[in-house]
Amino acid sequence: MTIDTGALGFGSGERALYATNPWTSRGRLFPEANSLTRSEFQRDRDRIVHTTAFRRLKHKTQVFISPDGDHYRTRLTHTIEVAQIARSLARALKLDEDLAEGVALVHDFGHTPFGHTGEDALDELLQPYGGFDHNAQSLRIVTKLERRYAEFDGLNLTWESLEGLVKHNGPLQTTTGEGIKGPIPRPIRDYCELHDLELASFASLEAQVAAISDDIAYNTHDIDDGLRSGLLTFEMLEDVPFLAGLMAEVRARYPDLEPSRFAHEIMRRQITHMVEDVIGIAQDNLQKLQPQSAADIRAADHVIATFSSEMAKTDRLIKKLLFSRIYRHPDIMRIRAGAAQILSDLFQAYMNDPSLMRSHYWVNHIPGLDDGAKARHVADYLAGMTDTYAVRAHGELFDHTPDLR
């Protein structure tokens, strides 16, 4: 993929016509005076970083449960890596870096303890009440559950940041209102009745680079963590021609490199190749579309920031490798089963006696809820837990807690 280096925005401070302009933001649900020192998207990013939800990511699983070791990625370190890549892509494409970074920083707020295991468990438990979706839960957190400000619940983020949070992976519904991947989660539908996020269109290019940065980050760091754990070996990476080529390149240049440095040299090359691939494809798509505004990006019928067909094939092969060698490894599956049991037990206990959720704000203030509303509040409580808190809460209520090591 050829990159037009003359069109890159490194260090220029220039914003392209198709970038999202913070000075013409569609605003916030609750109007606020502008800041004298920060743009609207800088304010959004800062609000995100100062939340309880952001701090909790430190003790939430990415792939490996925290007792496995201090050097594995958590949701927080993953989020920081995504934000770094998103900001680099935004700068190269002359976008608003603060918006791209903000969407990256908030994109995993709704994840449960124990990674995707927790989300799957909660989704199954909440099927009678509309299911559970981490993206919808992220929206619920930033519009309702964070309770920090005197004049409103949530963070009162701009329309553009909320749009990016909800639609960074693409439109959620067709132009006639049907859900593209099934029914629209209730929290998203409810919010859009107040503040229409235009679910049938693509999000800004800033949100799109945040989404592809998520793929780049976890494809790379899950390999790194897999090698550290011993579930992956360098020989296994040979199954992916792209990775085999990177290893051959590193071996040719550094024939006697120690394994830890060897792994890092592979990872840094992987990120570089993927980032450059996205830049090249985005430039090609922008050249064809010739957008004159951020609205033109939203109105396009395809994503702009994506992988080339060859890199998309590599992406699929890497995911296949990770699923077969790590995510479905017997040791990981045993831990997943234990984590799911912890959340299932806690859900049933809290549904039977909501007063057990001692710190949850609603317990003494909203009596007489029906089962659906109660289940949603229990899900809020469980989704907000860190891994360590969930294990401790289970140990306080039950005689035996599954071993997650």
From TrEMBL:
Pfam families: HD, HD_assoc. InterPro entries: dGTPase (IPR006261), dGTPase-like (IPR050135), dNTPase_2 (IPR023023), HD/PDEase_dom (IPR003607), HD_domain (IPR006674), PHydrolase_assoc_dom (IPR026875). Transmembrane segments: none annotated. Residues 75-219 form the HD domain. GO terms for biological process: dGTP catabolic process. Keywords: Hydrolase. GO terms for molecular function: dGTPase activity. Belongs to the dGTPase family. Type 2 subfamily. This is Deoxyguanosinetriphosphate triphosphohydrolase-like protein.
